[in-house]
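#structure-requests
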Amino acid sequence: MERKYPRVRFQRRLNYLREDVEEMGQTSLSAYKKALEAFINYDTELVDEVNSANEKLHEMGDEIEQKAMSVIASEQPVAKDLRFIETCIKVSSHLKRMGGLASNIADIARHLKDKNIPEKPMNDITHMGDIVDGMVSKSLSAFLNEDMNLVRELKKDDDKVDDLFDLALKDISTSMFQEKDSISFLIYLLFVARFLERIADRAENIGDRTIYMITCEKPGVAGRLDELIGDNKKK
């Protein structure tokens, strides 16, 4: 039993690290949902909660990085264990950035409250927001459950978000041309669309890092991802 104890202790430290990332992921997802709600139905309390969550996410990210580096220094992990620890650091970095982008959306909501936003651009943004919501959740689940199929879904979702972003730019530009008095606040809508696209990219990056953690290979294009998923099922 004594020979196994160091390994048991090491595994426990990995589990703690995983739990920390999961908690950070839930905090980031909650911040995003509140930011989107604040954008659609402005609420000062929600904006403050998102900004507080962003500060907390920075602290959580720093703590995860410190714990991860401590495990590497003391345990000298190799192979998949090392990739898992490195991925925890990468994922926490993406989650931290998502929190920052959510905070940006919440802050912009202050400038859009009581504004008569044209229907089409608003529909584009809310549709984007719904898809991105699912992507943040899927990215976290993909990492925690090592689910490569969810990564494939993330890539398809990201393509949808990119298409909606292009549509939003077109509709916002059209609205600006038709209602020149609205330009001053529709510019903020462009920022929201851009922030949503960047959150989607972060979610996809978490998926890509998950693939690397599992297979030690980068997925690259979708065809390569399908190949990696097939190879992993054979093992």
